[in-house]
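Re: Re: token formats

Sure, here are both.
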Amino acid sequence: MSGGTGSLTVAITDDHPVVIEGIQTWLSEEPRISVVYTGETADVPSGVADVLILDLNLHGRIVIDTVAALAAAGQRVIVFSQFTEQRVVLESLEVGACEFVAKNEGRVHLVNTVLAAAGDRPYVTPTAAGVLVGDRGANRPQLSSQERTALLWWFQSMSKASVARRMGVSVHTVDVYIRRARVKYAQVGREAPTKADMLARAIEDGLVKPDDITGYESAAAGG
């Protein structure tokens, strides 16, 4: 554990104590950030901090499933890894990571990513940018299944409370799914600040069809 006076809380999970100490040193230079939890295993308490920096390889195991579970519970997760293959980066983002930071990208990129993630804003690191540019589907964001489901039901003129009940999650988690989808669209240069914009993007990408949307006109006009 590590205390601090910043208003933005961060948790760190890495199986190398020296890496944890290095991240804490980097973050300590930013007064808005406090590290409130550190750990060396994948057993990370959900919601322990505003943002979780998670090593993708813990004790020899790639923990994509942990990223997915934490993201599904509404935790903002930044994947921090030495593995930067396209498949690894895309899969991390697909299952719900806010962003992917390579371990060789340094303090500035990690701090900027933490600040952006906490504010549900996009920040694309050089590694993620290179992967997205190289991906043939780079103009389409990598939405998780939870994000797609939340958007579809939200577009069907449902309140976020109704979506939450249907998905069996909290309204806060539904908000997280929708905000995360907005960030992902912004990351590929297709901002969607309103509900109408999100619906237009989803139709453009074939995620939904106009006929799938109950009350399509009212949903599009809802903003």
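Second one below.
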Amino acid sequence: MSAPTGARAPGLVERINGRHHRLALRVYLLIVVAHWAEHLVQAYQIWGLGMSRPASRGVLGQYFPWLITSEWLHYGYALLMLIGLFLLRPGFAGRARTWWTISLAIQFWHHIEHGLLFIQAQIGMNFFGAAVPTSIAQLFFGRVELHLFYNSVVFIPMVIAMYFHLRPNAAEQARTTCACAPVTSARRSVSTPSPA
């Protein structure tokens, strides 16, 4: 469908926060859940199967061992998460937007931590006198535990945001630019005046 003459066609951000918001959220959530699954498999390999940390590489890492040690992959995923949270934020309103923003803020810090790891790997020098590339929080927690924590504290507010996004109150529904949530008759009666 083309835009009327003289009207500006909607940009990418407008499209993914408007009529394509539901699809964009589903694709994004699929990527997030797949990443989560990798971390959960790795945790099970360590604490359930008793595998050593270097041998516990998740699912993909069993077939492509270099993936688990690639800071390119880890930094790339952290950046993808940050970009996704940022680009999809305009589609949220009210409580959903608040929770999505919390997730975005936490992921921003998580991205900084991965940036530090990435820089160390690229320049071949480890910070903090560590034997391996080390992030700030990694000075206090193991890498596997830390990433389970980071993924949890980013994922939980994201899920809460999606819950509120799919169940907005009338005021939030009126400010939402997408059609993710069905408009119920109660919300419709509050948001649209009844005929006189």
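Confidence is low (pLDDT under 50) at residues 185-196. The CA atoms of residues 52 and 148 lie 17 Å apart.
- S.
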